Amino acid sequence: MAMTPNKILIHKIERDDKRYPRRLMDLFDPPDCLYITGDLELLRKPMLAIVGARNASAQGLKNAYLFAQFIATAGATVISGLARGIDGSAHRAALGTKASTVAVCGTGLDITYPKEHGHLAHAIRTRGLVISELPPGVGPKAFHFPRRNRIIAALSLGVLVIEAAEKSGSLITARIAAELGREVFALPGPIDDPLFAGCHQLIQQGAKLVRNPKDVLEELTFP
């Protein structure tokens, strides 16, 4: 346990710690340790990942909010990557529920990326949980984020993709989730909208097409 200069209390949890999430051991390369700040009890809760485009449409942001609010109210902790767009909308919706939210970061926990999510990150630290495999002081690098996505996929019972372009990082999360035996859900959209090309690709590959949050709850049960 350590306190950063900006007074963030960070717990370091190694693989042999009983608090280390066993679901991460499904990965072929589970993190050697996790840096965590917030409510550690959330590690024991069932999680659903909600991910999608950073440059999401207004309707996409609304859908992410509505799905996250409904799913969290049903008992699942919403997990996402603190990115712009869909991630941020899902986190904000879940913060207002008892289930709360978990953010997995691609930086050390003393650095907020993107910077405009400073208030959101603070709210999640206060009422949810923030996780990284990177130690304090490590800033954002492009290769950090695909590795972050594998943690999101492994911790979740399923991954819901709201909007995703053909080469979206969200597809990495969905692919890893499928490889790990997690459920994958995708929201369809207009066939000529590039923001849904990734979602349609996932559906072609066997992801469950969802039209509303109840479609997710038909596949997953949250105590």
Question: How would you sum up this structure, described in words?
Answer:
Helix 1 runs parallel beside helix 2 (86-95). This protein is of the alpha/beta class and 223 residues long. The chain has 7 helices and 10 strands. Strand 8 (158-161), helix 5 (170-179) and strand 9 (183-186) form a beta-alpha-beta unit. The protein has one domain (2-217): Rossmann fold, CATH 3.40.50. It has helices spanning 58-73, 86-95, 118-127, 144-155, 170-179, 197-204, 213-217, and strands at 2-3, 9-14, 33-38, 47-51, 77-80, 101-104, 129-132, 158-161, 183-186, 208-209. The two termini are 31 Å apart. 32% of the residues lie in helices and 18% in strands. The longest helix is centred in the first third of the chain and has 16 residues, at 58-73. Strands 1-2-3-7-6-5-4-8-9-10 form a 10-stranded mixed beta sheet, with helices on both faces.
